[in-house]
Amino acid sequence: MFTALAIGAAALMAGVANAQVTATGTMGVTNPPKATLGTPINQTSYARLLSLNSLNDFCLFAPAEKDSVIGNVEAEVVAWCIQARNNARVIPDGSITGAQLQKSPLYWQVSGWGDFTKINIAPLDEGGELDPHGATGDGNPVGGNVTCNATGSDVSYEEWMNYMSYQQFCLRICIAENATYSAAIECEHTLDEMGCNWVMPGAYLNNSFTECDADAAYPPGVYPLANGSTSTFAQRYTGTYTDGAGSVGMFTIGQTVTPQTAFSTPASSNCVTYSTIGNGIPLSSLGLSGTVPSASSLSGSSQSTGSASTTSSSKSGSASGSKASTSGASSSGSSTAGSAIPGFSGFNYGPIIAAVLSVIALFAGTGAVML
Question: Which superkingdom, per the lineage (predicted)?
Answer without folding.
Answer: Eukaryota
